[in-house]
Design a protein that fits this description.
4-stranded mixed beta sheet; disordered N terminus; 6-stranded mixed beta sheet; about 425 residues; alpha/beta
Length: about 425
């Protein structure tokens, strides 16, 4: 239990407090009604930072207490769905983006925010796209971040081995070979125990510099498919890096891989912007930065980006006025700056200043970004592209199936529902 919630629960009100000191009549009633707004999140690793952010909100809004409740990601969606069906959900819920948002909108569990949160007009479409309903085009959540995906690297290890940030794929492989020869794990990676999504991220990190920044639009218009040689080549490149992944990577899960990097046992880790704050919190002494995975030539390297999620107003909330006030704070430039400073990943608004050097590197990467293909384009219905890739990527890397087969299986799955945009 956090100190801020413990403090709130210890408060018994003016009458009870006065009674304890034998002077009930000396206390007046409070000048405002106290409202508690419950906010649910799956980002357990952000709990301390989010509490500090909402301490700032409560200092300016003493009539509102934000009760932050965190549930592990693996259990969060089930908890939220069950609560919403029973009319026992929070006032504000952290929401998945794109296709994963739509069932909650269609079930009537959320209120649109276009009118009640005017600050949303100040957000870029890159951020808002993940919160927009297909059914009516309205916005159902306040976005919090548009992450980039890239290669985190241990700057001390690179310096000790005389390795510069690689500008081409050839230089990247040479760096991996040098690290391996020195007995250093080049890339912490694994997909065991439900961590296939982490290996799918490898495709998101590597892909844009193989298939190019215009490939997403070609896919959306139907001019290209997953069986396109460019996407197959992206999968092949992920497979080609297998000699540099964690030993026995098929039995290494995401948590173990992150710990290999955090502990300084691995030189690199493929991941998203959300890792920045988590890495720093777990090892404040770790020296690291991030770069976009390089292509065959020293052209600007492209990165995948997307809207990570949002915070929405639950339709059954009994505290909507206060909850909207909280959401307007979360849509403000003040929240964006606090988010950037506390968590170290790109906020959804574009008017925050990067004070963290790793965040500065991420914002530079955003200048050459393309949508994270499998998430932004192909998680709208089932089977999703992600579900097929996550299920087959270990077999592909181990050579049990070809990259062409994984691409064909992915294409066959999404072809059952995907309609190109004209």
């Amino acid at each position: 239990m956090t100190a801020r919630i413990e403090k709130r629960r210890r408060w018994k009100g003016p009458v009870a407090a006065a009674a304890m000191f034998g002077a009930v009549t000396a206390f007046a009633a409070p000048a405002f009604a106290q409202t508690t707004v419950t906010l649910w999140s799956w980002r357990t690793e952000d709990e301390a930072a989010m509490n500090r952010i909402f301490d700032a909100f409560e200092a300016k809004n003493p009539d509102i207490t934000v009760d932050l409740q965190f549930t592990a990601d693996a259990d969060y969606q089930n908890r939220l769905s069950t609560a919403l069906r029973g009319g026992a959900g929070p006032d504000i819920a952290q929401l998945k983006a794109y296709g994963e948002l739509q069932p909650l909108v269609e079930a009537g569990y959320l209120d649109a925010l276009d009118e009640s949160v005017p600050e949303l007009k100040e957000f870029p479409e890159t951020a808002l796209g993940g919160s927009r309903a297909v059914s009516d085009g309205l916005i159902y959540g306040v976005p919090y971040s548009t992450p980039v995906m890239g290669v985190f690297f241990n700057t001390d290890i690179f310096a000790a081995q005389g390795i510069e940030v690689p500008k081409t794929y050839e230089e990247f492989v040479a760096a991996c070979e040098k690290l391996k020869a020195a007995g250093i794990l080049p890339i912490a990676a694994g997909g065991a125990n439900g961590s296939g999504w982490a290996l799918e991220i490898n495709v998101g990190v590597v892909g844009p510099t193989v298939y190019g920044p215009g490939f997403y639009d070609e896919m959306m218009s139907g001019k290209a498919k997953f069986t396109d040689p460019r996407f197959v080549a992206a999968l092949e490149r992920v497979k080609a890096l297998a000699p540099y992944y964690s030993d026995g990577f098929a039995g290494v899960d995401y948590t173990t891989a992150t710990q290999q990097f955090i502990a300084g046992k691995a030189a690199m880790f493929f991941g998203g912007a959300w890792e920045n704050g988590s890495f720093k919190a777990q090892n404040p002494d770790l020296k690291f930065s991030i770069f976009a995975f390089p292509g065959d030539t020293a052209e600007p390297a492209y990165t995948s980006t997307f809207s990570d999620g949002s915070y929405g107003l639950v339709a059954d909330s009994e505290n909507k006025e206060a909850a909207v006030k909280v959401l307007r704070f979360m849509a403000s430039a003040e929240f964006a700056q606090l988010f950037a400073d506390e968590l170290g990943w790109p906020p959804a608004r574009t008017d925050a200043t990067a004070n963290d050097p790793v965040l500065k590197a991420m914002l530079e990467m955003q200048k050459h970004a393309t949508p994270y293909l499998t998430l932004v384009g192909y998680r709208w219905q089932t089977p999703t592209a992600s579900s097929v890739i996550q299920a087959g990527i270990i077999d592909m890397i181990e050579g049990k199936i070809t990259a062409e087969k994984l691409a064909a299986d992915t294409d066959a799955a999404v072809s059952t529902w995907f309609t190109p945009k004209q």
